[in-house]
Design brief:
The chain is α/β, with parallel strands linked by helices. It is built from 16 helices and 32 strands. Helix 16 links the parallel strand 30 and strand 31.
């Protein structure tokens, strides 16, 4: 008898699983159920369809050569049946069958299975506040959502747009909407946006948003909405915001109700518990994609990090196991990237905050530099942050922010973290080099070497937050800027003293030996050299500002 496989969910992980099963076992009877009208669409591309970067809706549902991925395509090309607008209602575990309903005609039917795959995805979080169901309050989760937003903006019916949520979804939505002639406000309940980053890195992104005309309100809770029929305002803990359009970008939660009613184990993250083969607590039922729990490879703890990339990898693993092979999905390191205007914003592994919460004894480094040699016209700035376990010297996490190519540095860091590499090993990795692509010493390798200097006692750093606390407390220390006079005139830190690096040795007599001296420059390379000069001259209380003025997330003095 042919293997009967039923897949519930048709966006990313579901079609991937179904297609792989059909390739491995051409005789298998594979049926995919999708309650929506569209199947296998690029949900992560929706913001770019709203902005106009993606010109046609069908591009989100087409192969690279332009063939539409619809039910006919999957049956004729991929050898499985895709039933759209068909909702799975019940899993009869004992009878190994699924009850489904055609949404159009309301007819119920049962599908038997040998193996069942849950790819039910996740749903957007909608805050339980008054009048949240008003017209023009929407999410950006489906193609109809994107079409509605795009239509309102194109017809200039939204001059005041409020995006609720400062995470990945919110940030990408803000960028997409800002291409239209409207005022955009981002509202975030937490003290910072983009909690995938540490505070100071997120603050640099916030400054970029504000420079693009976006109003960013953190520490602000939405309490309700105003309007008759359609929204006219957003009520917050900091007052009322006018709004013609509200986009909810708060995040997503896994769709687990079907699994829960079937008696499957739900993990501590709220997603479906699976083992390394992606089997659920029932050996004949698998779960993949945004409904499934994963494992954080750094901490070893369960995690819920919904990503299209993960969904596709899991679909392949599940299919191999369904067809009698053996494969495992070990987990993730949380690699994430998004574009915020001209900034690449990326992260992999643990943030500093997460590492400390887990009990790690960490050191961190902040290294601004250009992604190519400075003499190349296409060189752009990128700031790298590393989080390192002090006892083992192992890389725990990395972050990148700036217009330069931070994504490829984070990809390398993800491999290093997955392999358990130390910063000493990372500093000697043989990466590609040519001036059009990277500096001779790559940004990530430079950051690893700075970490080694800290670990070896060659450098004592001071974070921007620690320095700001000293400045606010009027502490008795000297803030020494060793840049050029021209750089100092353009922008500087309040209360700093300028002595250019080239003049430092001849002006040591001007510096107090009984005070702490904090050295810095644009990126703190010259700051580090200045610290070594001072230490060599007998100054004992010398620290270097991590990341220099380029990574300073607070106000600067200009002109």
């Amino acid at each position: 008898m042919p293997l009967k496989v039923v897949v519930i969910g048709g966006v990313a992980a579901g079609p991937k699983t179904a297609a792989k099963v059909a390739r491995l076992d051409p005789q298998a009877e594979v049926t995919l159920l999708e309650k929506g009208k569209f199947v296998s669409f690029a949900g992560c591309g929706l913001p770019y369809y709203v902005s106009g970067a993606v010109k046609e809706q069908k591009a989100l549902m087409s192969t690279p050569i332009g063939v539409l991925r619809d039910a006919a395509f999957f049956e004729k090309v991929k050898n499985f049946k895709a039933l759209t607008e068909t909702e799975a209602l019940e899993i009869d575990v004992a009878g190994k069958r699924v009850r489904a309903r055609h949404i159009g005609n309301g007819g119920d039917f049962w599908l038997p299975y040998d193996k069942l795959v849950l790819a039910t995805g996740a749903h957007p979080v909608v805050p339980p506040v008054p009048k949240v169901n008003l017209q023009n309050i929407t999410t950006l989760h489906t193609i109809p959502d994107a079409e509605a937003i795009k239509l309102m903006l194109a017809e200039s019916r939204a001059s005041e747009v409020v995006v609720i949520g400062g995470g990945l979804i919110g940030a990408e939505t803000v960028e997409a909407i800002s291409d239209y002639p409207c005022q955009v406000t981002m509202v975030e309940m937490m003290p910072q946006i983009l909690r995938m980053l540490d505070w100071e890195m997120a603050r640099l992104v916030q400054r970029q948003l504000e420079m693009q005309g976006v109003t960013v309100m953190t520490d602000t809770r939405v309490t309700g909405f105003e309007g008759e029929g359609k929204v006219s305002g957003v009520l917050t803990s900091r007052g009322r915001l006018p709004a013609d359009l509200v986009v909810l970008g708060i995040g997503v939660r896994p769709n687990v109700e079907l699994a829960r009613r079937a008696g499957l184990q739900i993990g501590p993250t709220g997603a479906i518990h699976v083992d390394a083969t992606l089997r659920t607590s029932n050996p004949d039922i698998y779960a993949v994609g945004d409904c499934a729990e994963s494992t954080d490879l750094v901490s070893g703890k369960p995690c819920f990090i919904p990503m299209g990339s993960t969904a596709n990898k899991q679909g392949r693993v599940a299919a191999i196991n369904i067809c009698g092979g053996h494969d495992e999905f070990p987990g993730v390191v949380g690699s994430t990237v998004c574009r915020v205007f001209d900034f690449c914003v990326a992260r992999t592994g643990l943030t500093e905050a997460a590492a400390r919460q887990l009990g790690y004894d960490t050191i961190t480094v902040m290294v601004p530099d250009t992604d190519r040699p400075h003499y190349m016209p296409e060189a752009k700035a990128v700031i790298i942050k590393l989080v390192v376990d002090k006892p083992t010297r192992r890389l725990l996490g990395a972050q990148a922010v700036g217009p330069g190519e931070g994504d490829k540095r984070m990809d390398v860091a993800a491999i290093a973290i997955t392999a358990g590499m130390t910063v000493d090993q990372l500093s000697k990795v043989d990466l590609c080099y040519a001036p059009p692509y990277s500096p001779a010493v790559d940004n990530l390798i430079t950051a690893a070497n700075v970490a080694r200097n800290k670990l070896d006692g060659q450098m004592t750093g001071l974070t921007s937050s620690e320095l700001k606390q000293r400045m606010d407390a009027k502490a008795d220390f000297l803030l020494l800027d060793v840049r050029s006079p021209a750089e100092y005139k353009q922008e500087r830190l309040e209360g700093s003293t300028l002595i250019p690096l080239g003049a430092l040795r001849s002006r040591l007599g001007e510096l107090p030996r009984d005070k702490e001296i904090v050295t810095f420059c644009k990126a703190s390379l010259r700051g580090y050299e200045a610290a070594k000069i001072l230490q060599g001259a007998g100054f004992s209380k010398v620290r270097v500002l991590d990341g220099g003025i380029a990574a300073w997330p607070f106000e600067k003095v200009h002109g």
